[in-house]
Specification:
The longest helix has 15 residues. A hairpin with a 4-residue loop joins β2 and β3. The radius of gyration is 28 Å and the shape is elongated. The chain is built from 2 helices and 3 strands; from the N terminus they run βββαα. The chain is an alpha+beta fold. A 3-stranded antiparallel beta sheet has the order 1-2-3. It folds into 2 domains: 88 residues, no CATH class; 40 residues, no CATH class.
Length: 138
């Protein structure tokens, strides 16, 4: 899903209108749950229509996003394609590999307690070669 966010606006007086939003900075975000895409942009907005002018304090986020997309034109689709491509090009996340409890029968240091006798060592983790708590290399 692609989400647009306007993160900053610049205002100016234009054609007798005050606090006209003239430039927007925006983020385009996409996520499929495990992978994420992100793009940032800035665009000058189209000149305001005095008859349809919306006061600055009345502008909603949805209106600002729509104005950004209108100002970008076809480039709006390119931003969305860019973040979707980022997701498609990311490798699949690797889940943490663990051994079943029956394989992990002794402490990390191979005894019932670690070399310092702290008795904090958990089940043996075959990817590590030292006691987790006492930092002695085994």
């Amino acid at each position: 899903m692609v989400t647009w966010k306007v993160t900053r606006v610049e205002t100016s007086s234009v054609g007798g209108l005050n606090d006209v939003i003239v430039r927007c900075t925006f983020d385009v975000l996409a996520s499929d749950g495990a992978k994420h895409g992100y793009a940032v942009g800035e665009v000058d907005l189209l000149p305001p229509d005095a008859a349809a002018f919306v006061a600055f304090d009345s502008v909603t986020h949805e209106q600002a996003v729509e104005w950004v997309k209108q100002a970008l034109g076809s480039a709006a689709g390119e931003y969305e394609a860019k973040v979707q491509a980022q997701i498609a090009n990311q490798p699949e996340p690797v889940s943490f590999v663990r051994l079943p409890g029956s394989v992990q029968t002794s402490m990390s240091c191979g005894t019932d307690t670690c070399y310092l006798g702290c008795q904090r060592c958990g089940p043996r983790d075959l990817r590590r070669y030292r006691c987790r708590w006492c930092v002695w290399w085994l």
